[in-house]
């Protein structure tokens, strides 16, 4: 299916500080028909809202594709509601526990057996494992979204299979200790440093976002997907960081797919400064940049990130306590109001 139109809805996740992702979209057109996709489900409440949204707004019980971009609970948990209450045709998720036998050499403890390591990985990624259990019980086909996979009108640009399994999975926060650290991935302590906000000046010609940001291995494992709708590029990034995004950029070049001049970009990890850099954003430019963020969050999105996006020509919006809708070659849905565009800030967090 090569649709010309798409409508994307970023649903609100949570009512406090903690952000997550819950995305519903439909592609095709209202005359000849469309298919529905869900990408991540946030928590249980947002999963219930996704079910209501698909039934009430999209007018269907059928979801062609459900994508769990990575196994964090704020992306996986709500999908149990989707799998249990809608007619899901395909589930896309990584199942690293199935590769345990080939990963023994990548973990520090030499006493692991294949079965023991498989059980430990399943337990560590329990929210994702629950999705597998439900899908198997309901006979929903499960596919793994590695680089090059086609999911409806989208192509997966990252993660690449061997990088995911051999470097990222052993360095997930809850899996057993890795024998070697993944290149460029910091530990939990390093990630926690620097959250206190201090303020520095910025201007259109003064950028303080730099190339030092690092996110977790689990975030880097996020599925990055590109779709083209009537010549309008859409890039969905979940919580991917500089490494995953750089691999997406490079893979795009190999297959003749530029990420410059997109119509719509999902800003990774709720606008965190650890997930993007000037070099990455020079290669991923977009007319619209959309950010999923909890309504009471004081840390997301980072102003130096939204400034960097605006500096490169994007109009930036966030969920801001409610649904955020974006449509390409699709009629405007009744009852929607315009979201406020985020401004350019003259002072940003360090």
Question: Topology, pairings included?
Answer:
Elements: E1 5-10, E2 22-29, E3 33-41, H1 44-56, E4 62-63, E5 65-67, H2 73-76, H3 79-85, E6 87-88, E7 91-92, H4 100-103, H5 114-124, H6 126-137, E8 142-143, E9 150-151, E10 154-158, H7 161-168, H8 188-192, E11 199-201, H9 217-220, E12 224-229, E13 232-236, H10 242-254, E14 262-266, H11 278-283, E15 286-291, H12 303-311, E16 315-318, E17 324-328, E18 347-349
Parallel strand pairs: 3-5, 4-6, 5-7, 7-8, 13-14, 14-15, 15-16
Antiparallel strand pairs: 1-2, 1-17, 2-3, 9-10, 10-12, 11-18, 12-13
Helix pairs in contact: 1-3, 3-6
What can you tell me about this protein's structure?
- The protein has a single domain, classed as Ribonuclease Z/Hydroxyacylglutathione hydrolase-like (Metallo-beta-lactamase, Chain A, 4-Layer Sandwich).
- The protein is 27% helix and 22% strand.
- The protein is of the alpha/beta class and 350 residues long.
- The strands form four sheets. Strands 8-7-5-3-2-1-17 form a seven-stranded mixed sheet.
- A hairpin with a 2-residue loop joins strand 12 (224-229) and strand 13 (232-236).
- It starts with a strand and ends with a strand.
- The model is unreliable at 185-196 (pLDDT under 50).
The strands making up the biggest β-sheet line up spatially as 8-7-5-3-2-1-17
Shape: globular
CATH superfamily: Ribonuclease Z/Hydroxyacylglutathione hydrolase-like
SSE pattern, N- to C-terminal: EEEHEEHHEEHHHEEEHHEHEEHEHEHEEE
Helix content: 25-40%
User: Largest beta sheet, briefly?
Assistant: 7 strands, mixed
Q: In CATH, what is the class?
A: Alpha Beta
- Name the average pLDDT: 90
Number of domains: 1
Count, helices: 12
Which strand-content bin applies to the residues?
15-25%
Low-pLDDT stretches: 185-196
CATH fold-type name: Metallo-beta-lactamase, Chain A
Task: Tell me the structural class.
Answer: alpha/beta
Rg over CA atoms:
19 Å
Number of strands: 18
**End-to-end distance:** 45 Å
CATH architectural label: 4-Layer Sandwich
